[in-house]
Write a structure and sequence with these properties.
Blueprint lengths: L6 E3 L2 E3 L2 E9 L3 E6 L2 E6 L2 H6 L6 E11 L2 E7 L2 H11 L6 H10 L2 H9 L3 H4 L7 H14 L2 H8 L12 H13 L4 H10 L8 H15 L1
Length: 217
Amino acid sequence: MLFIFREIFIGKIMISYIKGSLEIIGDGFIVVECGGIGYRMMISGKFLEKLPGIHSDIKVYTYMAVREDDISLFGFYSTEEMEVFKILLGVSGVGPKVALSLLSALTVNELRLAVISDDVKSISKANGIGAKGASRIILELKDKLKMEDMLDAAYEENVSTAGSVTMDIRNDVITALTALGYTGMEAAKAVNKVKNASDMDEETLLKEALKLLYTMM
């Protein structure tokens, strides 16, 4: 099994991914053995949920954080998760640990949805992030993430027949639900789970979404 260096820069080596055997699953980290060397990588809680069994072959996308007194390796289950992690590092006051905390509390699509809907409450669920920090993250991510990409992916999870509902009706219902105290994420998920939503008007869709929210509580 070969350890492949995919990107090389003058003065340092950048590791894009590691393929090897998953040997250790720890609290927020994994160790992947490749070429007789065990590589310890910090990972998100969402990645932890996707891990195969011990000794399984695995491919992990990586980001190396280099500081004067430390070199840390972070692992991701997809290039998308890794790219969002790097975008988060560009937000004021967000370092690798906070970025990983965000990706542990929210999936990539949930994070997009929280940004679109100004959902401070959901982003504040991440360890180390308060309401003020969440507001700043939302503001900066709206500039750093492409809005069209967020709109395409934000509603991807938990979608049923609501996909055929017009965007205006869906957005109006989500707005109404958030006015009732639900987070943007909770509202969007409920609307997307309503069956036969394409046959409903705004009032009916709102009632059905509320029923789902009551059962989800």
